[in-house]
Write a sequence for this structure.
């Protein structure tokens, strides 16, 4: 039977929530199998992203108890996006479709049913989209929604209020494999694949256990990564800013000449100081933005691997119900 589904779930220091997530996903997978929507060979794959706690021990224990669970152990921490990619690319030869989601149970497991239905209806990519942000703080809600709008304004085709909860078909994953960026931002790359896509809307829950692995500094870094990976408009904005400042400087020159010829040439240190500091700050800011793009070019030319898999726990090859 085809329609083999592999769940891919990245984990970083998630020993507190893993067992509960595994239990809930197992019930969901068994239900989908009974309904005839997915193959018996479907699997749940946890990706250990170089955790410092007992996350890998928990994953190994789950695999020993039930081969429904697979485990991928990365050689070191490579970040959430690279862990997702590692899981997807490791299982792509075994699966007809892959669903990625976070391990903290904030993504609604019940939305998986509708995702699979849309896949069976012919969709290659199904996005899990938050229906609302009522549970978020005012700052988080405004900043997150503002970020999605900014990304789209800058030219990146992101899905509004979509993170990394999505279904991808085998051919969509083959398309993803052709993108070789070192600076990985899957939320911007996946929509570029094309193919038929749709969305499933769900209410995002609260974290079941443990602490968020995305503090404010990581969120800001991730946001900047997305902007600079998919748009050159910040550099163009620098050019525009330079043109505006140059125009203002000509206006200031005309103003000074008028003051000179009318005999009103009192010179104040404040205007000079403000001009020096403002122009100096703009120059440093501009150099920083340009340097960010140069740094990305530098990393891309190295072509270092996104990840290295140390262990892969799977029963593939010994399963009569293989996809």
């Amino acid at each position: 039977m085809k329609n083999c589904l592999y769940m891919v779930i990245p984990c970083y220091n998630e020993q507190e929530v893993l067992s509960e997530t595994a239990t809930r996903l197992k019930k969901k997978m068994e239900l989908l199998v009974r309904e005839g929507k997915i193959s018996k060979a479907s699997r749940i794959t946890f990706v250990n992203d170089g955790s410092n706690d007992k996350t890998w021990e928990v994953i190994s224990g789950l695999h020993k108890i039930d081969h429904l669970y697979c485990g991928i152990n990365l050689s070191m921490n490579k970040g959430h996006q690279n862990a997702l990619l590692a899981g997807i690319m490791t299982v792509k030869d075994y699966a007809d479709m892959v669903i990625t989601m976070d391990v903290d149970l904030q993504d609604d497991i019940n939305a998986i049913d509708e995702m699979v239905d849309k896949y069976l209806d012919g969709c290659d990519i199904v996005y899990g989209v938050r229906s609302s942000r009522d549970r978020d703080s005012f700052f988080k809600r405004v900043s997150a929604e503002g970020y999605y709008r900014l990304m789209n304004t800058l030219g990146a085709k992101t899905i509004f209020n979509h993170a990394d909860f999505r279904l991808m078909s085998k051919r969509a994953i083959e398309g993803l494999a052709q993108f070789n960026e070192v600076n990985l931002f899957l939320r911007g790359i996946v929509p570029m694949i094309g193919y038929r896509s749709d969305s499933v809307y769900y209410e995002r829950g609260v974290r079941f256990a443990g602490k968020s692995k995305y503090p404010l500094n990581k969120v800001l870094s991730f946001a900047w990564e997305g902007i600079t990976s998919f748009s050159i408009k910040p550099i163009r904005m620098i050019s525009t800013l330079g043109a505006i400042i140059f125009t203002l400087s000509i206006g200031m020159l005309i103003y000074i000449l008028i003051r000179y010829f009318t005999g009103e040439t009192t010179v104040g240190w404040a205007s000079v100081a403000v001009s020096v500091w403002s122009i100096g700050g703009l120059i440093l800011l501009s150099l920083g933005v340009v340097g960010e793009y140069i740094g990305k070019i530098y990393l891309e030319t190295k072509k270092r691997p996104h990840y290295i898999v140390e262990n892969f726990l799977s029963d593939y090859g010994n399963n009569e119900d293989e996809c």
Notes: The first strand starts at residue 5 and ends at 11. The chain is about 50% helix and 15% strand. The first helix runs from residue 18 to 34.
